[in-house]
Amino acid sequence: IVFLDSNNGWTVGQDGIFKTSDGGSSWFLESISSSIDYGCCLYGIFALSNENLWVVGGNKTVLHYRDITAPTVISISSTIDDDTYGIGSIIPITITFSESVIVTGAPQLTLETGDEDAVIDYTSGSGSTDLVFNYTVASGHTSSDLDYTSSSSLIISGGTIKDATGNEAIINFK
User: Is-contact 167 157, C-beta < 8 A?
Assistant: First the structure.
């Protein structure tokens, strides 16, 4: 097993190359060519970075691997319960990505809050799978179910959201 940072790691097994982006809690099989005869097994992995990964296998197989999968939004949630909150209350909104992302700039999220939508700023989470945006309840904001306004509610605002290999995140919600 090779970890490049506290979240991103790689290992090999008989079925192929496995990747984690959550510190090893879950592992995912990365697709590799089924037309190559590995000689039954992949034996070792050497990672200089996510962009320079070499795998050695049976039958003198040497593979060069590069992650080209873009991170995607998998959920949007809050850590606090649905309830009525007064003016000035802070409600953290978490956007969870499929892998760790690095944030530059000041992304914003637009929320449906009644007659006037609220645009909230990114607060924290760069280097992890969870980005946090804090919404402060303001006068005139009324919503029985706080939600984002559309599938394009996350705005990059001149920055970037990318994975460790530089793949731009797909930021449209489903």
Answer: no
Number of C-beta neighbours around residue 139 at 10 A: 6
Full-model pTM: 0.70
Q: What is the pLDDT of residues 101-139, one digit of tens each?
A: 999 999 999 998 878 888 999 999 999 999 999 999 988
Task: Report the alpha-carbon distance of residue 171 to residue 155 in Å, rounded.
Answer: 8
The CB density around residue 171, as the number of other CB atoms within 10 Å, is 20
Q: What are the pLDDT digits (tens) for 57-101?
A: 666 666 666 777 899 999 999 988 888 888 999 999 999 999 899
Return the SS3 of 156: coil
94 phi-psi bin (left φ>0, alpha ψ -120 to 50, beta other) = beta
User: Helix-strand-coil percent breakdown of the chain, rounded to 5?
Assistant: 0, 50, 50
Is the separation of the CB atoms in 50 and 68 below 8 Å? no
- Angstrom distance (rounded) from CA 96 to CA 93: 10
